[in-house]
Structure formats: structure tokens, C-alpha cells
């Protein structure tokens, strides 16, 4: 993974300032005419005004109603994914980021749409504040599960429970959390994928990720990953 730095703004000690710095660095990567996937969450909330301020001609896809509303209010052009088809770039936050590119996402319960949008994009850029970089992934892993047989699905998973007070996913499904160990993320991802009733889990494999922009007290670190090209 290649690493490069950009000069530090005066103070990035605050987590929210770091999220804003990472979001602004991602906005600076975009070019006129691109089709852009917009993630969900407080880091993406900083991305939207940064994109609008660039004044580029972009066509965007939102991964949640909240992002859609915020983007439209800022005057961004928001379309349906199936109208645009392939995307040039998707930009989104994450809850945990491993150095090798594995992510945990879904703190906002939108990880199914986020994964679809990331997979539709030629380049997937992850933006985050410094505390999201972790040495090892830890539970919980967010799950979107079907309402039909939800208790049975949770029993089959074993170490999983519904997330208390969580809003439904953007597609009306339940949000739960897998609480088992994640020493081998690929094995856990395969197991979660294989469980009927699990619509999608929040483990994102390094193959999906192109760039990670992590802002810390000393500026934004840009890591480039070798995303595996998929047949299109
Ligand atoms: C939503 C997500 C978010 O990207 C993730 O939870 C990070 O959120 P934030 O930017 O608020 O820290 O996956 O489903």
C-alpha cells in the first residue's frame, strides 16, 4: 500500500475537524463530469458541502435517505444507481480500518447500499478520522437482516443480537450486530454471507477499496491500495 501525506492544517486535534479534513481531501480528488457514489454518516456530512463548493458537474448516487436529502439541499445532482450504472468514484466513511484495507462499516445501518455503491464504482475512497485506524478488527460487525424469521437467523448466527433502538435499514430491514471474534475477516465474511436471512454484513474486503484518507493531528494521510480489477 502506497502512502503519501498532505500538509497539515493548523490544528486537527478535534475528531470532527479530522473528519472534515479527510472529506475535503477526497472532494479534491474529483473531476468534472464524474458519477459519484455518496456514503452515509458524519464524515460524509462534511464531504457534501465540500463537493458542492467545488462547483463541478457531477451526477451522484446517495446510499441513504439522509445523504440524499442533504445532497439535494446543497444543490447536488442526485440520481438512481440504476440510471447511472457504473460509477467513477464512491466516497464513504468507515467504523474500523485495518492497514491491509479490511473495513467494518454499517454504524449507520446503510452498509448494504454502501457496499452495492462501492462495488459499482471504479474507485472507492474511504475517509475517516484517526481513531478509525485499528490494529485488529473488533466486534460488532453490523448486519442487515430480513424481518422474516429474524429470531431464527440470530439463533443460527449464535453470537448476534438486534441493535437496540436502531432505525431500520434504508430498505426497511432490521439492523443487528455480529458479536463473535473477527481474527480472520474473510472467514467471518464468508460465514455471514452463507447465513440465510442475512441481507448483507458490514465487513468490506480490501478488493473493494482503492484509497484510504485518514486525517490525524498532523494532516491527511493518503494510502493507495491495489484494488483488484473485476470483470465488467
Ligand atoms: C454508515 C457507515 C458509516 O460510514 C460509518 O458508520 C462511519 O460513520 P461516521 O462517518 O459517522 O463516523 O458505514 O452505515
Largest sheet, spatial ordering of strands: 1-15-14-8-5-2-3-4
CATH topology of the largest domain: Rossmann fold
Order of helices and strands: EHEHEHEHEEEHEEHEEHEEEE
Poorly predicted runs of 5 or more residues: none
How many structural domains can be distinguished in the coordinates? Answer: 2
Number of distinct helices: 7
Which class of the largest domain in CATH terms?
Answer: Alpha Beta
Shape descriptor reads globular
Number of DSSP E strands: 15
Strand content: 25-35%
Gap between N and C termini? 24 Å
Could you say what the CATH architecture of the largest domain is?
Answer: 3-Layer(aba) Sandwich
- Structural class, please? alpha/beta
How does the major sheet shape up?
A: 8 strands, mixed
Description:
With 232 residues, this protein is of the alpha/beta class. It folds into 2 domains: 11-129 and 204-217, 3-Layer(aba) Sandwich (Rossmann fold); 141-201, ACT domain (Alpha-Beta Plaits, 2-Layer Sandwich), CATH 3.30.70. It is built from 7 helices and 15 strands. It has helices at residues 15-27, 42-54, 65-73, 81-84, 111-120, 150-157, 185-194; strands at 2-5, 35-38, 59-62, 78-79, 87-92, 96-97, 103-104, 121-129, 141-145, 160-162, 174-178, 198-201, 203-204, 211-216, 219-224. The strands form 3 sheets. An 8-stranded mixed beta sheet has the order 1-15-14-8-5-2-3-4. Helix 3 (65-73) links the parallel strand 3 (59-62) and strand 4 (78-79). The longest helix has 13 residues, at 15-27. It starts with a strand and ends in an 8-residue tail after the last strand. The model has no long low-confidence stretch (mean pLDDT 94). It binds ribulose-5-phosphate. Ribulose-5-phosphate (5RP) is lined by residues 39-43, 92-95, 105-111, 114.
Amino acid at each position: 500500500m502506497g502512502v503519501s501525506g498532505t500538509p497539515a492544517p493548523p490544528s486537527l486535534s478535534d475528531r470532527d475537524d479530522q473528519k472534515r479534513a479527510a472529506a475535503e481531501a477526497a472532494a479534491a480528488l474529483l473531476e468534472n463530469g464524474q458519477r459519484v457514489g455518496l456514503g452515509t454518516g458524519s464524515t460524509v456530512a462534511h464531504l457534501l458541502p465540500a463537493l458542492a463548493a467545488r462547483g463541478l458537474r457531477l451526477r451522484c448516487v446517495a446510499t441513504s435517505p439522509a445523504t440524499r436529502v442533504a445532497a439535494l439541499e446543497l444543490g447536488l445532482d442526485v440520481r438512481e444507481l440504476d440510471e447511472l450504472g457504473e460509477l467513477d468514484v464512491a466516497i464513504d466513511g468507515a467504523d474500523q480500518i485495518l492497514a491491509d484495507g479490511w473495513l467494518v462499516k454499517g454504524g449507520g445501518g446503510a452498509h448494504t447500499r454502501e457496499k452495492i455503491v462501492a462495488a459499482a464504482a471504479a474507485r472507492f475512497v474511504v475517509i475517516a478520522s484517526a481513531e478509525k485506524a485499528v490494529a485488529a478488527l473488533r466486534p460488532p460487525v453490523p448486519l442487515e437482516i430480513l424481518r422474516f424469521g429474524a429470531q431464527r437467523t440470530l439463533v443460527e448466527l449464535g453470537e448476534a443480537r438486534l441493535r437496540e433502538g436502531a432505525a431500520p435499514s434504508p430498505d426497511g430491514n432490521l439492523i443487528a450486530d455480529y458479536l463473535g471474534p473477527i481474527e480472520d475477516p474473510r472467514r467471518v465474511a464468508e460465514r455471514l454471507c452463507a447465513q440465510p436471512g442475512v441481507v448483507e454484513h458490514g465487513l468490506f474486503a480490501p478488493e473493494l477499496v482503492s484509497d484510504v484518507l485518514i486525517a490525524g493531528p498532523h494532516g491527511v494521510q493518503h494510502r493507495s491500495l491495489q484494488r483488484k480489477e473485476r470483470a465488467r
